[in-house]
Structures are given as C-alpha cells and as structure tokens.
Design a protein that fits this description.
Length: about 400
C-alpha cells in the first residue's frame, strides 16, 4: 500500500476533489453550495459501516440539519425514488448528498430532479425531448461521494431506474442531474469486497471500451476512454487482491468517472443487453457487463478491429483485436467473475430480453447495427459460453 496516494482538484466535468481523507471537506462543500438541510441518500449497507455515523455527525456539528434516507435496493426502482421524494419534501431539503454506489447516486439524482419539478421519474426517460418537461433551475444541488469505482454516476447526467411494469432498466436523463460537486475519497472504498471491486471495475472498463468504439467524431471522449482503460488495466487486479491499496483505489475512482465522462459519446450492445438482464434477473450490472463484453466484441469485430491496436497500447499489451479479446477474457477470469449466463437466464425469458435490448437507448450507438436475430445470437452465445 502506498503512503502517498494521488490527490487532486479540478473542474471537469464537475467540481471534483479526489484523494484520501477528503471526506472531511464535505461540510465546507455543502456551505459553498448553499445547503443547510441536505438529504443524505445512501443504501442500508453503508448506514451500518463504522465510518458513516461520523460523517453525519460532522455535518450536524457544522450547523447543518441532515436527514438520512437509505430505503434503496441494489437495482433502484420507481418506488425507491418515490420514497426518497417523500422524505426530501417532508424534510424540506435544499440539496442532496449522494453517498454510495450507483444505486444511491441514481436514486438521489432522480430525487433532486423531481422535488420541485412535475411528474414521475419515468416521465423523464431518455427519449426525444422528455427532459424539457423539467426546469433545470429547479433541480436541487447535489454532492456525489462514490463508494464504488464503477458506474461513474457521480459525474453523469443520467440515472438507471427499474420500471415495475416490465422490470427493465430505464435511462432517466436531464442535463441538470449532473452533481454539482464530487468528493472521491478512496478511504471510503476500502471495505468494498473483492468481488464487488472486480465487478464495478469491469463496469468502468465496459464504459470506456464502448465509448471508444462508438461511432462518431469525439477525440476528447476517445482520449479519456483510453486513459481510463489504462488505469483499470494497471490497478483493478491490484485493488481486488489488496483492498487497502489506496493508490490503486484512487486510480479506479478516477477511471470510473472517466468512463462516465467518455460515454457521452455513446455506449453499445454490452449495455443494451446488461440493462434488461440485470433488471429481470437481478444480476449485478458490472458482472453482466463483464460477461457480455467478449461476446459483443466478436459481434462488432468487423467494424472495431482497426481500433484495437490503440486499445492494446493503452492496456499495455502488443497486438490487435485477438490480443485485446484474450486480455479481456483473462482479466475476467483473474477477477473470479463468471464467463457466461448459464443458470441466470431461462429459455422463456429470451424473447422478452431481446425485445428490451432492441429498445434500449444504448443500442443506438453500437458501432455495428443489430437485428433482433443478431441480438438473440449474442445473448444465446453468452448463455452457452460460446466464444467461437
């Protein structure tokens, strides 16, 4: 473990503070944003951790009046957002502190969006001009404090919420949902179990990889995605094997934010499949991404192969597509994550999962168009573990 883990402060894409011990700056950041009655959105597991009560106590000691809301599941649904809205309105919250992984971040951003804007969370699904139904000035300010290094939701303008009508994950979007400030403190990720460290890291990898492969001209996103992949390649196994390595954990927090910044360019079939499979089966999103990535790579090979030497260079290997594919599969195995969906997806679920994937907004920027038959083929290969 390094005695001098990285630290930094900058303003891209949000006001961002990273480094060990920076959680101590939360009260001053609240004051800078004008918060006096923050709603602290987190999950039930974090509430039980030893380091959580002192954070709330420090807010109270600084003269703030926080309320903790933790009625959130790993895959947050409309009901969790509605419960958080009720808590925010009862508390007369003037801002939010989003502390946790993607579930807390996504739920909290939706709560901030809706407290003073009309409608329900699904009214703001990322389709057409739905986001224009809300006034950006009425979105409550928020401070994001990630405790996992995966989703990058702390710098994102969207959230993923489960629709109870079909159990699919819907992308909720508004430009003003992006948190106003981020405090990324690796000390808060120390207690993350190895398997969750691995799965969330593979989520960040999929964000960077799909963003880099997405079509269109966006050199800034491409550069960020490549550097994010380098940081993951250098640090994910280290952090999984030694959870106390704060240098590795700092780099992974940065890579997660970079992945979410880069995928403004787009995502693809990995996420289009992971969203419905996770929503219907409960499979962890990062694990789903880790399973799907090699199968989607093979599907997309004809149109991404010429980009793979740059990926290979970023992750520190020689070669092209075959070498990047082999590295991805090897990394997944070293992390102890599954390589297929055997026992997860049932035959009867396949037609509906294919339909959901075909309608997922992430599919629009897959580098290779996908017919229903092609989506089904990739899904079936992932179930069978067929990488031919």
């Amino acid at each position: 473990m390094s005695d001098a883990s990285p630290t930094g402060q900058f303003n891209y894409p949000s006001a961002y503070r990273i480094g060990a011990g920076r959680i101590a700056e939360l009260s001053s950041v609240c004051r800078d944003l004008g918060l006096s009655r923050p709603l602290v959105v987190t999950d039930p597991g974090i509430v039980e951790l030893d380091w959580f009560p002192p954070i709330v106590e420090a807010l109270e000691a600084s003269g703030l009046a926080p309320l903790v809301f933790s009625d959130i599941d790993a895959n947050p649904a409309v009901s969790h957002v509605d419960a958080g809205l009720a808590a925010a309105r009862t508390h007369r919250a003037d801002g939010l502190v989003l502390l946790g992984g993607g579930s807390a971040m996504d739920s909290g951003k939706c709560i901030a969006l809706l407290v003073d804007n009309p409608g329900g969370v699904l009214d703001y699904e990322d389709e057409g001009d739905n986001w224009k139904r809300a006034e950006g000035a009425k979105v409550l300010p928020s401070i994001a404090i990630p405790t996992t290094a995966g989703t990058g939701s702390e710098v994102g303008r969207a959230a993923v919420i489960v629709d109870p009508s079909d159990h699919n994950k819907k992308i909720i979007f508004h430009p003003a949902m992006q948190p106003d400030a981020v405090i990324a403190d690796p000390e808060l990720t120390r207690g993350l179990p190895p398997r969750l460290t691995a799965a969330t890291g593979m989520d960040a990898l999929a964000h960077c990889f799909e963003a880099f492969c997405a079509p269109g001209y966006h050199p800034m996103a491409d550069g960020i995605a490549l550097e994010g992949m380098r940081l993951i390649a250098d640090n994910l196994v280290v952090a999984t094997q030694d959870g106390d390595d704060l240098t590795a954990r700092t780099h992974l927090l940065m890579a997660a934010s970079m992945g979410a910044t880069a995928f403004q360019k787009g995502l693809g079939l990995i996420h289009a499949l992971s969203h419905p499979v996770g929503g219907v089966t409960g499979l962890h999103h990062g694990t789903a991404n880790a399973i799907f990535q090699p199968y989607v790579m093979l599907h997309n090979r004809p149109v991404i192969e010429d980009r793979m030497p740059r990926v290979a260079q970023a992750i520190g290997i020689d070669g092209g597509f075959d070498d990047v594919l082999a590295w991805t599969i090897t990394l997944r195995g070293r992390l102890g994550l599954p390589g297929d969906l055997a026992g997860v997806v049932e035959e009867a679920q396949i037609p509906e999962l294919v339909r959901m994937a075909s309608e997922d907004p992430s599919l629009a920027t897959n580098p290779k168009p996908c017919s229903l038959d092609e989506i089904e083929d990739v899904l079936r290969r992932a179930i069978a573990g067929d990488l031919r």
